[in-house]
Amino acid sequence: MSFIEISNLQKSFGPLEVLKGLTFEVEKNDVLAIIGPSGSGKSTMLRSLIQLEEVNGGSIAVDGDFLVKDGVYSKPIDSKKVVAKMGMVFQQFNLFPHLTVKQNLELAPKLVKKERSQDYSLRSVELLEKVGLSSKQDEYPSRLSGGQKQRVAIARALMMNPDILLFDEPTSALDPQLTKEVLHVMKKLAEEHMTMIVVTHEMEFASHVANRVIFMDEGSIVEEGSPQEIFSAPKVQRTKQFLNYELYE
Ligand SMILES: Nc1ncnc2c1ncn2[C@@H]1O[C@H](COP(=O)(O)OP(=O)(O)O)[C@@H](O)[C@H]1O
Ligand SMILES: [Mg+2]
Questions:
Q1: Ligand 1 in contact with 195 (CB < 6 A)?
Q2: Rounded distance, CA 37 to CA 195, Å?
Q3: Are 168 and 40 in contact (CB under 8 A)?
Q4: In ligand 1, which atom is closest to the CA atom of 53?
C-alpha cells in the first residue's frame, strides 16, 4: 500500500463537477508537483485532503487510515487523525494578523494542549531559524514581505510535525526574488525527505525538485510521470499545449 492513496475522488459544487474521479498515489519522501490550468480543480483536490472540502465520492487514505472511503467519511475521531498528518501552505499565507510571528506558530499546539509550552516554544524558535526568520519572531505579519510571510506560513505548517506538507501555489503572490527565497526553503525540505504535494506554476521547481509530476485539466489527471517524462517528452497533446503556453506566456 502507498503512503497516500487517493482513488476515484469526486467533488461537485452544485451542478459543476470539479473533480471527476481522481486516482493517484504518493509514496513517503515523494515530492509530487501538480500542474495544470486555472480552474482545473487543483486547489479543491488539496483542500479535500485536509477536509476543507467534503467530497461526494471516492477514497482518501494516509498510511492505511481512511479519511473517506467510497464517499463515506470516517468518524470524526479517526478523520481528525488523518488530517493531523498533513500541514498546508496557502497562496495567500493566511497568517493571523493580530498575532506575532511566534504566536502564529504556537497557536495550533496551544489549542491542542498536548504539549508543555516550553516544548512548542523551543520548536517555534528552531523552525523560525530553519526558514531564516529568527530575527522576526516578535514582528506582526503586516511588517513582513510576502516572501517572509510565506516562510512563516511554512514554519507554522511544520509546527505540528506533519508527515506531509501540501502547498497550494505558494509563490504565485510573490515577485521573482521573493519566490526564490520561498523555493529555497521548499527545496531544503525536499532534501530532508519531507513528503510534499506542491501545486505550482514554477516549472523550474517542478522539473528540478519534484520526483513526480501530475498534469491536471478539467478535474481529471491527463498525464503523470517523472519530470523528465512530462517536461521533455509529454505524450498527450493537451500536456504539450499547456507546457508551451506556460513557457511562452
Ligand atoms: N466553493 C466553491 N463554490 C463553487 N465553485 C467553486 C468553489 N471552489 C471552487 N469552485 C470552482 O471549482 C473549479 C475548480 O476550482 P479550483 O479547485 O480552485 O481550481 P484550480 O485550483 O485548479 O485553479 C472552478 O471552476 C471554481 O470556480
Ligand atoms: Mg488553485
A1: no
A2: 24
A3: no
A4: 1
Strand partners, 10: 20, 57
Is the CB of residue 44 below 6 angstroms from any atom belonging to ligand 1? yes
User: What pLDDT digit, counting tens, does each position of 230-247 carry?
Assistant: 999 999 999 999 998 766
Atom 5 of ligand 1 has which residue's CA nearest to it? Answer: 13
Structural element, H or E, at residue 188:
helix 176-191
E strands present in the chain: 4-13, 16-26, 31-35, 57-62, 65-69, 72-73, 86-89, 164-168, 195-199, 212-217, 220-225
Angle of the 176-191 helix axis to the 146-158 helix axis, nearest 10 = 20
Q: What is the pLDDT of residue 174?
A: 94
* Paired sense of beta strands 195-199 and 164-168, if any: parallel
Q: Which residues, 6+ apart, have CB-to-CB distance to 103 below 8 Å?
A: 96
Indicate the average pLDDT of the chain: 96
Q: CA 144 to CA 135: how far, in whole Å?
A: 11
- Tell me the CA–centroid distance for residue 158 and ligand 2, in Å: 22
Smallest CA separation from ligand 1 atom 17, residue: 41
Using a 10 angstrom Cβ sphere, with 0-12 exposed, 13-18 middle and 19 or more buried, the burial of residue 217 is buried
pLDDT tens for each residue of 64-112: 999 999 999 999 999 999 999 999 999 999 999 999 999 999 999 999 8
Q: What digits encode the pLDDT tens for the residues 120-142?
A: 999 999 999 999 999 999 999 99
